[in-house]
User: Fold this.
Amino acid sequence: MVRLGRPGWLIGLVLITGRAAAQDPAPALRIELGENVPNPFFPATTVPFVIHSEVCARGHEPLVSLKIYNVLAQVIAIPVLQGQPTEVLDQIRLNCGSYVAVWDGKLLDGKSEVTPGIYYYQLVVDGQRFTRKMIARR
Assistant:
């Protein structure tokens, strides 16, 4: 059995190494999912997002989806692109740039309106997932 002369040196090394790693600058974000506006909302809201140019290198057009979920993780709605009411954000190809998704507060059936509560929206770009929370309140 090997005994260490100072058992605390390993813990100090781990703490110092962990601190140094935490101070490294974070890599540049390639996708930004903004907070919905307004939040809390009722009945409609918008969701801004940005796909940076690094994602579109060599002419690549990323595959994009944005869906609204209830607290049971069930898809309840799929927003549309602002200014393009027929462009549902479900597995579509987009160029890099800034976008705004619009949700009118209607559920997938197109008739029922969202009820007050907590909801989640998730942006998926080429398989990368970005999720935020929003609140519906009258």
